[in-house]
Amino acid sequence: MERDELADFLRRRRAAIRPAEAGLTESPRRRTNGLRREEVAMLAGMSVDYVVRLEQGRSSQPSTQLLAALARALRLSDDERDHLFHLAGHQPPPADGVASLARAGLIRMLDLLGDTPAMVLSDLGEALAQNRMSMLLAGDHTGLTGDRRYLVHRWFVEADGRDGCPPEDRDHQSRQAVADLRAVAGRRATDPVVTGLVERLQQASAEFRELWSDHEVAVRRADQKTVLHAKVGPMLMDCETLMTPDQGQVLLVLTPADAQTRDRLDLLRVLGTQEFPADSSQSS
What we know:
- By secondary structure, this protein is of the alpha+beta class.
- The chain folds into two domains: 3-87, lambda repressor-like DNA-binding domains (434 Repressor (Amino-terminal Domain)), CATH 1.10.260.40; 104-281, 2-Layer Sandwich (Beta-Lactamase).
- It is built from twelve helices and five strands.
- A five-stranded antiparallel beta sheet has the order 2-1-5-4-3.
- The radius of gyration is 20 Å and the shape is globular.
- The chain starts with a helix and ends in a 9-residue tail after the last helix.
- Residues 276-284 have low confidence and may be disordered.
């Protein structure tokens, strides 16, 4: 771990990023061009004291999870993120396979979408980053671990994994989830992460085993689905995806498909503002 170099890098990156780039409101009375330490701590989900110690070169070695959170908070490019990991004495996450960090370009696009629900997903459906509205719509899934972090696992294994989906839509969503996983398994045929997940799903779910045996293949791109929300009711959402060239990550954008859904999404935004301070709900 190169403490002094790490401290200098973090200070300079914090000073270089404008609050608007991190999804924060810029006050006219603001005295600094970059982010405050308090803002970095909030965006990264860590204490201000730890950010201070990192920037002063007197911290313990940060974990890979903390580094991932800092990379997202500071909107680091892929090269900058890898440099951050090296300075902290860790190997960067792999460029292929299951990426544990959302790509910097997708994070920036997530910020630009503002009040439109959007999230960055791995090709296995792991939520790598979410904006505030997607959390209000579907919950915060960025902190899940183990197989629970995969959407397909929650859908087929967990008792409440389908609560947000109307019963009449569940068969279609099940087939879509399995067909998409088939496409991933084809691209990553020798990846033990994928083969292990498939094996565990086959053991845990008879429905999954049956659908898997059908060998249907279809990459999720555009779709439409109804989201059942406990506070505002059902919402019909158009789902559009922007996929990275290696198909390893996806930016999923959810837009209201009708006027009623648009009104309910507006209501959800208001309810969220009442429950959470605006700046406390940035993407993770």
